[in-house]
């Protein structure tokens, strides 16, 4: 080979080597079928392996906190719905409990049990969405269709108590606006009878499925210590091995009366998160059954006339009821000055409300401790070094709800 | 008030001269620290088992001269089940406060959110930029002097809204 | 008894069927709208319920949800659009090929909804032209289906030259869309 040909050959070899080592930038989002929600990840990938991810959030920032400084306490309930909209009753009831903590109101036992039933139904609805979507991302679309049918049944039950399907605006500060009627109880009993069988079918499709397990085991793991450092909560933390559940650590709404287990995983990977949510649905069914069997008699609301609207017939006949009604609707409720932090176990973990009140009609400062916002930060660390398809699965198994992410 | 929380509270008050403590009517522990002590206090608490930073946010109190801004930390000890609330008051002339990202990785975005909303500057933060609002926004919206609505809107007639 | 779409009016004979182009093309377009679900928030979950088995949207021809703008006809914007997302929405609309329709699902997409704040776009018609608005917060699946039926009516009766006409171009220019 001549000198020139040898030089050319080396030049070609050298350029091939640099092509092999090139890093590609891939823009995942903000609108993407696999990211269930609006958030952007700019990934640096080497072949199929992810080297780093840069995140952009805030595409659906709706300024809830500033909006809450303008609205009365009872008007903030519909805003709360839109936080984690897959399980809105939990947000509503958490907010009502925060205000009740601020004013120092005690709830009758019946209200507590009613709240527990509704919150556990919401938790089931939220986990159904997440698990079916993990199935969809691995290619199993059947589970999604069947589980959304079950969500329709939960929507039917919500409609009996509050009238709405998704963004429920449920209950009042002080309890509920109406008692459980016969249709509610019969629909709930029918659901408790039929759902476990359908759910076991869904479980049989995926839980011990060879392909599903191969896809999800080892995808996006996180250790318990890193998860705690990132303030994970909820099923994501329990999948990593830490059994922190607000319902047990700081029981609210009579959760201490119920007997349930907290499922805990080992490695914190996608399969563990999926299985923890599956088990939690079963535990929620147990809680609802216990609450329904032991439902105490009593009032469906607390006796706090300055905060809870009186019944309409009293408004038209009694003077005090008329004055209370007027004051409550105009927002002139005697809220004390103070600051309080209350948290409930939402579908994704510890959902907290930090409320500062200056005695006025509207909160002075209301801050939502949103679990999605806090644990989504850990995503680049979880997917570093994994394949692109595993990164997609990790994202859907984290159950990032865009409304809660950006608020 | 458990024995553990009393012990930690006394230790904190003795270590940091500027700190204050209050147990309010909701049985919540409230501590106030100065800007210089907060990082050391958080490091001490982390070493005592408070490994879970529940929340980090800010507030704006324009009627308190010299302490217009406040950064509020909620921290949780999972094994002893004790929650503390730590507050730091900042004056609007000096909005700098050290970051706790080196102790708790979850503080990263929470501090960015506080910066985005109030303009509080966290020294030592790896990437202190806006997170929820558009990047070219030139004001910090959660401050009390700014309105909720978009000021540049022309198609809304305020006479219909009673304002 | 399943109701299927009937043939348009025309003259029929042995081995031939004569009708006008716009009737046939209108019928074909209306009954095979492939939507692009631009689902941001809570209305997105109601849209997923509309796609599900109970309120099946696939009956109306929308079997394939395309997530690529180049392969879809109908842009369904469901959920709040913030100012940060406005340019992204415009880019997605630009990438769609004519003829294209836009369905704005929910109060937030139509007019900003309950979020009259500094960060929410008060209606997507500030950035893209909209054909049908579906109010509700979130609208029930039956309402979303009614919105799709109205788009079908628009698609069926649209003249073939509409997309090249000067009025249409003028409207697009008012949105700064080339």
Structure, described:
The complex is a heterotrimer of chains A (407), B (163) and C (178). In chain A, helix 4 runs antiparallel to helix 5 (109-138). Chain A has helices at 3-20, 64-68, 77-81, 88-103, 109-138, 142-161, 182-206, 210-216, 224-229, 235-240, 246-249, 270-293, 312-315, 319-330, 371-375, 379-383, 388-397, 402-406; strands at residues 24-28, 40-46, 49-56, 337-346, 349-358, 365-369. Chain A has 18 helices and six strands. A five-stranded mixed beta sheet of chain B has the order 1-2-5-4-3. The longest helix of chain B has 13 residues, at 3-15. The termini of chain B are far apart. Chain C is an alpha/beta fold. Chain C is 34% helix and 13% strand. In chain C, helix 3 (86-95) links the parallel strand 4 and strand 5. Chain C is globular and about 65 Å long. The model of chain C has no long low-confidence stretch (mean pLDDT 88). The interface between A and B is large, with 42 and 34 residues.
Kindly report the oligomeric state of this protein.
Answer: heterotrimer
- Which pair of chains forms the biggest interface, and how many residues does each contribute? A-B, 42 and 34 residues
Based on secondary structure, the structural category of chain B is: alpha/beta
| Largest sheet data of chain C | 4 strands, parallel
As a whole number of angstroms, the C-alpha radius of gyration of chain C is: 17 Å
Uncertain runs of chain B are none
Helical coverage of chain B, percent range? 10-25%
Count of DSSP strands of chain B: 7
Shape of chain B: elongated
Largest sheet of chain B: 5 strands, mixed
Q: Give the ordered list of helices and strands of chain B.
A: HEEHEEEEHE
Report the uncertain regions of chain C: none
């Amino acid at each position: 080979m001549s000198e020139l040909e040898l030089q050319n050959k080396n030049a070609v070899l050298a350029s091939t080597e640099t092509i092999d080592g090139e890093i590609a930038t891939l823009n995942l989002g903000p609108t993407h079928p696999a990211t269930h929600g609006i958030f952007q990840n700019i990934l640096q990938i080497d072949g199929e392996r992810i080297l780093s991810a840069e995140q952009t959030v805030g595409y659906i920032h709706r300024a809830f906190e500033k909006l809450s400084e303008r609205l009365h306490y009872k008007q903030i309930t519909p805003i709360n719905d839109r936080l984690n909209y897959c399980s809105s009753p939990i947000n509503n009831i958490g907010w009502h409990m925060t205000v009740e903590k601020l004013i120092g109101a005690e709830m009758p036992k019946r209200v507590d049990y009613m709240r527990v039933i509704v919150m556990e139904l919401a938790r089931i609805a939220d986990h159904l969405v997440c698990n079916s979507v993990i199935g969809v991302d691995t290619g199993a679309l059947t589970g999604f269709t069947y589980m959304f049918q079950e969500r329709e049944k939960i929507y039917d039950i919500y409609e009996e108590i509050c009238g709405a399907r998704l963004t429920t605006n449920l209950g009042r500060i002080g309890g509920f606006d109406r008692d459980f009627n016969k249709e509610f109880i019969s629909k709930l009993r029918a659901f408790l009878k039929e759902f476990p069988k359908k759910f076991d079918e869904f479980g049989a499709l995926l839980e011990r499925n060879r392909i599903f397990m191969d896809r999800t085991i080892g995808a996006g793991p996180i250790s318990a210590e890193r998860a705690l450092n990132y303030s994970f909560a909820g099923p994501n933390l329990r999948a990593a091995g830490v059994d922190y559940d607000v319902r047990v650590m700081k029981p609210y709404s009579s959760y201490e009366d119920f007997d349930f287990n907290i499922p805990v995983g080992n490695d914190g990977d996608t399969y563990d998160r999926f299985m923890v949510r599956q088990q939690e649905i079963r535990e929620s069914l147990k809680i609802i059954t216990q609450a329904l069997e032991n439902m105490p008699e009593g009032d469906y609301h607390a006796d706090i006339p300055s905060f809870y609207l009186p019944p309409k017939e009293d408004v038209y006949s009694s003077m005090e009821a008329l004055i209370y009604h007027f004051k409550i609707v105009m927002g002139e409720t005697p809220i004390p000055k103070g600051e309080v932090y209350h948290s409930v176990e939402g579908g994704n973990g510890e959902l907290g409300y930090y409320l500062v009140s200056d005695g006025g009609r509207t909160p002075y400062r209301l801050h939502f401790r949103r679990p999605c916002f806090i644990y989504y930060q850990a995503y680049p660390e979880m997917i570093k070094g994994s394949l692109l398809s595993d990164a997609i699965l990790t994202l859907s198994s984290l159950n990032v709800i865009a409304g809660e992410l950006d608020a | 008030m458990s024995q553990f929380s009393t012990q930690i509270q006394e230790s904190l008050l003795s270590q940091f001269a500027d700190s204050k403590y209050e147990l309010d009517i909701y049985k919540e522990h409230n501590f106030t620290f100065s800007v210089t002590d907060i990082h050391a206090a958080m490091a001490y608490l982390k070493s005592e088992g408070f490994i879970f930073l529940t929340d980090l946010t800010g507030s704006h109190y324009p009627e308190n001269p010299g302490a217009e801004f406040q950064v509020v930390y909620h921290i949780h000890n999972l094994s002893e089940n004790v929650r503390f609330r730590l507050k730091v008051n900042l004056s609007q002339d000096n909005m700098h406060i050290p970051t706790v990202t080196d102790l708790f990785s979850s503080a990263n975005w929470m501090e960015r959110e506080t910066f985005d909303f109030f303009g509080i500057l966290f020294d030592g933060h790896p990437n202190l930029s806006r997170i929820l609002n558009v990047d070219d926004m030139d004001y910090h919206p959660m401050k009390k002097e700014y309105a909720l609505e978009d000021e540049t809107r022309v198609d809304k007639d305020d006479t219909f809204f009673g304002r | 008894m399943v109701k299927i779409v009937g043939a348009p009016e025309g003259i029929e004979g042995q081995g031939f069927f004569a009708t006008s182009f716009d009737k046939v093309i209108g019928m074909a377009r209306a009954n095979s709208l492939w939507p692009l679900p631009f689902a941001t928030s809570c209305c997105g979950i109601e849209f997923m319920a509309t796609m599900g088995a109970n309120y099946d949207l696939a009956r109306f021809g929308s079997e394939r949800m395309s997530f690529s703008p180049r392969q879809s006809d109908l842009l369904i914007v469901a959920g709040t659009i913030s100012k940060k997302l406005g340019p992204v929405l415009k880019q997605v609309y630009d990438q769609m090929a004519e003829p294209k329709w836009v369905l704005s699902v929910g109060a937030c997409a139509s007019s900003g909804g309950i979020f009259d704040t500094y960060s929410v776009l008060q209606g997507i018609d500030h950035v893209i032209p909209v054909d049908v608005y579906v109010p509700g917060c979130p609208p029930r699946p039956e309402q979303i289906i009614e919105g799709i039926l109205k788009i079908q009516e628009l698609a069926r009766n649209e003249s073939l030259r509409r997309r090249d006409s000067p009025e249409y171009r003028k409207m697009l220019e008012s949105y700064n869309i080339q």
